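Purpose: get a first structural picture of the assembly so the mutagenesis plan has something to point at.
Setup: two entries, given in the order below. No constraints added.
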Amino acid sequence: QKEVEQDPGPLSVPEGAIVSLNCTYSNSAFQYFMWYRQYSRKGPELLMYTYSSGNKEDGRFTAQVDKSSKYISLFIRDSQPSDSATYLCAMSPFGAGNMLTFGGGTRLMVKP
Amino acid sequence: DVKVTQSSRYLVKRTGEKVFLECVQDMDHENMFWYRQDPGLGLRLIYFSYDVKMKEKGDIPEGYSVSREKKERFSLILESASTNQTSMYLCASRAPGTGPNEKLFFGSGTQLSVL
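Result (structure tokens, whole complex):
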């Protein structure tokens, strides 16, 4: 069993839809939770960062962490075609850039 | 603006060849990383370096080595390429700081095919 599980998709939604992306994990030592966005033929870039449990909002994006369930989510409101990308969750016991464990990524397609 | 540059976007090599993947960062970061990315497996850490001439094994170092002679440059070496090393290779450097400030900056990747 992988330490971090993520549905690979692809997930196809119409423009304007609310998107929910999720990861589950098994290592209770994880304290730092990140979402990276990766456009085609590009490297991942940090989208959201959360420490421990709770919610974090940034514009149309909301990250949620439920440590009791070992479950993290990324919500995208009013999705746009420009949101079409692969979304990778990542987590670590140590920090946002230290010994990260990545999920396999979910490919999202937002259709106009 | 932050920049991590990988020398090749696509590379095709033969089994048994020695392969060099080059990465340069212009941010004076001390920490640099090599990952490989395979469909459904996410990113897996091969090697990282926290200073010039220093290196540490990641999760999957077998069949790879690295070189860091200068702070800005981190090279990944496949001593004798094999078909199971066909993959996307991503280089990253880490910003100093704590919390979200210590985030990783990735290059655009090198898609390596070993035939």
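The radius of gyration of chain B is 13 Å.
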